[in-house]
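Bug report

Summary: structure tokens for Phosphate ABC transporter substrate-binding protein differ between web form and batch submission.
Environment: batch mode, default settings.
Steps: 1) Submit the sequence below via batch. 2) Compare with the web form result.

Sequence submitted:
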Amino acid sequence: MKLKKFIATLAVVGMVAGMAVGCGSKEETAKADNGEKTESASDWDSSMDITIVSREDGSGTRGAFIELFGVEEKKDGEKVDMTTEEAQITNSTSVMMTTVAGDEYAIGYVSLGSLDESVKALKIDGAEATAENIKNDTYKVSRPFNIVTKKGSENEVAKDFVSYIMSKEGQQVVSDNGYIGDDSAAAYAGSKPAGKIVVGGSSSVSPVMEKLIEAYKEVNPDAEIELQTTDSTTGVTSTIDGSYDIGMASRELKDEETAEVEGQVMATDGIAVIVNKANTTDELSSEQVKTIYTGEALTWDEVVK
């Protein structure tokens, strides 16, 4: 436990004990015995240390986040991730949200389409994190969802499923699940072949891919599709080595990757910067987010005035 949080915890314990002795209230004593917080103890304190939560290396969400917020710099011609070593590392979208939901002083980031009511999304540079604001270019923290296939692959089920994803019907599934699809896509006119394929990669893309698989199997029940959730880098490398028939990446593809795979943008997604619902902060600037993740700002009152 960090020093400030330890001191704050001692202060809360002392306050509760003092109230119980000073006023002789059986109710307050019972609350202290049961470990319940009094109203004053539950107030959010901006002087507390920020719990910085990030994603693992290989995560497309992390790659897009550090690029969009400038949490990287060039050294010897290569981009270097400057995320503070104090950051807690999570390995999936769901773990990220659970971690932030369980810590009043935490900050993290997730796919906008995966956002739920367990956490609070902050405005960034005055704009709310919504699909509509991404469309009108007021919320600028967005990235592509790519699907990739190995160059020269002739798997008919993979080709047909990709055609479904990029069709009017597939893009409607994308839009219905909170992402931005292609409104001008043509109707699906595939061959509906039988067979099995493996789709794998980004945990951010997986939720909408699961919905696409369900929808596709309704029009092609002869297709068997296995979904594996890993990360963006694994999604691409496993497609190259043949472990996946279709890979998922929640970031831009690298030049060395496009030499091996064919990529298509299946959706546009925002990255929501999230905090615990007890946090009184509603908005941060891009620069403030950067100072947190590079370790320049250590407590909430250093960024929230």
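Above is the batch result. After comparison, the two runs are identical; trailing whitespace caused the diff. Residues 1-41 have pLDDT under 50 and may be disordered. The CA atoms of residues 59 and 295 lie 20 Å apart.
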